[in-house]
Structure formats: structure tokens, C-alpha cells
Amino acid sequence: MTIPAKDRTVLRDLAAQVAGIAALPVQQETIGLWKALNALRPVRPMVTIDQVCWHQMNVDDELTLRCEAPFCQGLEQSLRRTLYAWRHMRADMVVEPVIEVAKAVRNTGFGLGVVEECVALDPANDVVSHHYGDQLRTEADLERIRMPEVSLDEAATAEAEEAAHSILDGLLKVQMQGALPVYAPFDLIVTWHSPEALLYDVVDRPAFVHQIVSRLTQAHLHMLDQLEAQGLLGAHQPTIHCTGAFTDELPAPGWDPAHPRARDLWTFGMSQIFSTVSPAMHEEFELPYLSPWFDRFGLAYYGCCEPLDRKLPMVRKLPHVRKVSMSPWVDVERGAREIGRDFVFSRKPSPAFLAVDAWDPAVVEGDLRETVEACARHGCPVELILKDISTVRYQPQRLWEWAETARRVVGA
After folding, report:
1. What three-state secondary structure class fits 269?
2. Helix/strand/coil (H, E, C) string of 290-338?
3. What angle separates helix 70-88 from helix 154-168, to the nearest 10 degrees?
4. Maximum pairwise Cα distance, the chain
5. What fold does the segment set 5-410 form as a domain?
6. Of 369, 302, 288, 286, whose CA–CA distance to 332 is shortest?
7. HEC letters along 25-68
């Protein structure tokens, strides 16, 4: 791989800035705060921001790419976003003297692609509306779900590793990252079967739905077996589902950095399509299939946008859960009462506050204080995770102010 001299200069300048930030004592202090939270002994609530509408955030060309080679552009984007977040919306982010480069892990897939129509309101935004076609109409269609085969493209991996070292050595550690697999079966199934068809079928054809998710679970576990056997799992995990993952509980005893195991890692799972089904139905179609996946891993995060404040009895049956998502649609008081001291209350404040015509930090502060105070009443470890940010109305300062407001609320 040929690295243009200009690209090398750009990247080394950015890497030097990141390395300087990574060396600050506050990084280890923040890691300690995340470890305390994840051990269910929090010092204070923690705050992160992720899944940002980066196409709306560029100010003074801070995010404008200047490299020419595609590989260098990927590194540059990562470095620029790190620096931008640190300057403007750091919250409780941690900057490490590391840059991750993905190993070229090849996967034959599950046999089905996505048949869809998309509608976009903003052509620059990758958040769009989807209408999925139904490809799983009969039991015969289940044979289309295949067992994936996993392999490492050694040549491509070696080329990327050599290039990264040639650019960044002496400034940042190059971490060749393996797979960090997660399992959200129904979030995938709806892209093959359509949300409408699935919701009808859990009532009208429950046995058929069980067949679909059973086959998909077999496929995922087959994939996980291969990743583990070939040493292709990841070995560095500072985040899990947009939250801090720092912990002294992982990796597990017997850790071999050259051969990571699932039990050395966090994973996460969710079933957002079950937001409106009963707790009994959610448990019927989730617990038998997600449990064997979670059981393989050291720690787990459960949930995303689906409201789980009425479904904690099911969550408690899942193995190794440490964090539970509390989406914008939960009753905060009920969720804190049901979670108590047993899990991290992973609050997802509504990103809609950033999308309204008139931005009002006071409204954000009131919303965040409601969560923090409810969790304090019930002794509940809590984190505030702003994510799914599809727009700030091209006013990035809204997000900067959100970060300042949240830090003030948690006493940072």
C-alpha cells in the first residue's frame, strides 16, 4: 500500500494531538469512574454521546478530510472525530493512545440480503426510512438462512497493519481489532420478513416465528464458534453499545491476548420490534434464543429503544446482564424502582430535544434531573447515553450545550 507523503504528514499531526490528550491524567481518572459504575459501585452518574449526525457538525473545517488515499481517510476521520468530540462535547469520553484497525475478517453471511425501499429527507444524512420486503413467507423459505463461514484475509490484514504502523509508530499504538459480535435477532429478522409480517406472525403463526429465530440463533452460534476457534474475536473493548465498557472483571481467568474468547468480552442484544408486545410474549420469543448467546460472554448489555421498565423480570433471567437500556419511552420512576442496585440504569435521553425548532437547554436539564433524582431515590447506578442523533438542525452548538448541561447535572 502506497502512503502519499502529504497523507502521512496530516495523520502524524493529528495523531500527535490525540496522543497528547491521551496522556492527560484525567483519562485514567475517567476510566476509574467507568469501572466503578460498571462494578455497580458508582462514584457519580456517567455521560456519553454517540451515534452523532456528523454531516451536520463540521465547524471551521475541523472535520474536513485532507488525505487522499482511502485507507488514510479512514484513519483521518477517526482521529478528527476524536479531537472534535474532546474539544466540544467530551462528556465522560476516554481518549486512549490507541487507534484501531479492523482485521479483514471475511464472512459469507446468512444467505439473505435486504430487499427494501428507502426515503431520505436529507440526502446528506445516512439515517433514512426503510420499507422492507418479506422474504420469509413459508417454512421452505427458512432454508435460505445459511450457516455463515468465517475466515481471515491474512494478506489484507497484514497490509493494513503494516501501513498503520508505518504512519503512526512512535505516536499511537496500532490495535488490530477482531470481531466484537452482538446478537439482536429480531432487529435482523424484520429486515427479511418486514415488521408488519413479524408482528402478525407472533400472534397468528408463533411456531413459524420460533423456527425463524431458532435457525438464526444456530447460525449466530456457528459463527461465534468459528471466530473463537480462529482467534478472530476482538481484544480491546473501551465501549459497549455506546457506553463505557471499562471493567476489572474482564478478561476472564486464562486470558490469552492472541486467542480471545467470548467470555473475555462484553456483548449486547435487543429486540426493538417488541416495544409494544406484552412481557409474556417478549419473554417467549426472546429468552430461549438470547440466553445461550449471553451465556457465552463475560458481561452483557440488554436493550435499546424498546421500553423495558415493565419487563425487568425477563431481563433478570438473561445471563450476565450488567446494563439495561432505559429508552425515552420508559416510566423513569418505575424503571429505577425495578432495577434498584442490580444493574446499571442505562438511560437514553430523547435526542428529539435537539431536533425541535427552538432549542432549550432548560428542558434538557429538567429531563436529565428527573432521571438522576429517581435513580438516587432507589440507589440505582445510572449513566446518561445520548445516541441516535439524526439531526441538530445544522446547529452543532446544541450538542455542545447538551454535553455541558449533562455534566452539570451529574456533578462532573
Report:
1. strand
2. HHHHHHHCCEEEECCCCCCCCCHHHHCCCCCEEEEEECCCCCHHHHHHH
3. 50
4. 63
5. TIM Barrel (3.20.20)
6. 369
7. HHHHHHHHHHHHHHCCCCCCCEEEECCCCHHHCCCCCCCCCCCC
Q: How many whole angstroms separate alpha carbon 99 and alpha carbon 345?
A: 30
Rounded Cα gap, residues 48 and 91, in angstroms: 6
Torsion from C-alpha of 48, 54, 56, 59, nearest 10 degrees: 90
**341: how many CB neighbours lie within 10 A of its CB?**
11
Distance between CA atoms of residues 385 and 48, nearest Å: 5
Beta-carbon neighbour count of residue 26 at 10 Å? 11
Nearest residue to 232 (alpha-carbon basis) of 146, 151, 149: 151
- For residues 45 and 139, give the distance between their C-alpha atoms in angstroms, rounded to a whole number: 48
pLDDT at 128: 85
**Cell for 45?**
452518574
d(C-alpha 159, C-alpha 353), whole Å: 44
Task: Report the C-alpha gap between 265 and 267 in whole angstroms.
Answer: 7
Mean pLDDT, all residues of the chain: 97
Q: How many CB atoms lie within 10 A of CB 1?
A: 13
Retrieve residue 276's grid coordinates: 409494544
For 125-189, the three-class secondary structure string (H helix, E strand, C coil) is CCCCEEEECCCCCCHHHHHHCCCCCEEECHHHHHHHHHHHHHHHCCCCEEEEECECCCECHHHHH
Distance CA(2)–CA(4), nearest Å, equals 6
Q: Which residue type, as a one-letter code, is found at position 261?
A: R
CA dihedral 79, 83, 89, 94 (to 10 degrees): 70
Phi, psi of 268 (to 5 degrees): -145, 160
To the question of pTM greater than 0.85 for the whole model, the response is yes
The radius of gyration computed from the CA coordinates of the chain, to the nearest angstrom, equals 22
CA neighbours within 13 Å on the CB side: how many for 302?
Answer: 27
For the ranges 127-141, 187-201, 326-340, the lowest mean pLDDT is seen at: 127-141
Mean pLDDT value of segment 266-294: 97
The grid coordinates listed for 340 are 434498584
Residues 227, 261 contacting (CB under 8 angstroms): no
**pLDDT value at residue 120:** 85
Q: What percentage of residues in the chain have a pLDDT greater than 90?
A: 94
Q: How many Å apart are CA 400 and CA 340, to the nearest integer?
A: 31
Q: Are 280 and 310 in contact (CB under 8 A)?
A: no
Q: Report whether 192 contacts 32 (CB < 8 A).
A: no
